[in-house]
Design goal:
This protein has one domain (about 5-165): Four Helix Bundle (Hemerythrin (Met), subunit A), CATH 1.20.120. The protein contains 7 helices and 2 strands, in the order αααααββαα. α3 (about 45-60) runs parallel beside α4 (about 80-100) and α3 runs antiparallel to α6 (about 125-145). The longest helix is centred in the C-terminal third of the chain and has 23 residues, at about 125-145. The chain is mainly alpha-helical. β1 (about 110-115) and β2 form a beta hairpin. The protein has helices spanning about 5-25, 30-35, 45-60, 80-100, 105, 125-145, 160-165, and strands at about 110-115, 120-125.
Length: about 170
Amino acid sequence: MADLPYFRRLARYNGWANRRLYFACADFSPAEWAALRAGFFPSLQKTLNHILVGDRLWLARFEQAEPPYRRLDELPHPEFSELKAAREAEDERIVTYTMGLDSERLAGDLIYTNVAGEPQRTPLHWALTHFFNHQTHHRGQAHAMLSSTAVKPPSLDLILFLREELAS
C-alpha cells in the first residue's frame, strides 16, 4: 500500500502540474478557451472544470461532507480567471487534506454514495490513488487540446516535478 508521504507528494505534484497548465491557458481569449476541441469534455473550459468538479466531489467524500455537485459535467466556473482562482484554492485544500491524514485513516475504507446514487465502499488508499490518477488523466486530455493551438503544451512529467522538488 502507498504511504502518507507518497500521497502528500502527489498532492504537491497536482498543484505544480495545474499551475503549469493554467499558465499555458492564461492568454486564451474567451472564445479560444471555450472552443470545441477533441476530448471527452470537448473544450479546455469544460475539461478543466470537470477536473475541479471531480476533485470537489472526491474531497467531499473523503471529508464525509455533502457532495457539492450532482453531475460530472457541471460548469461552475465558465470564466478562466474564476476557475484559476478556484483551482488554486482547491489545490491548497488537497495538500491540507493529505497533510491531515494519518496511517490509521489511510488503512481504512471510504464509504460514500457516487453521483448515480449507488452506495460504495473502497479502501481509502485506492480511492486516493484514483483521485490523483483521474486528475492526471484529464490534465493529459487538456494537454493534448493545447497541441491544437499556438500555445506550446508544458511538460507535466512527474519526474520533472520530482527533480525540481528535490533540488529545492
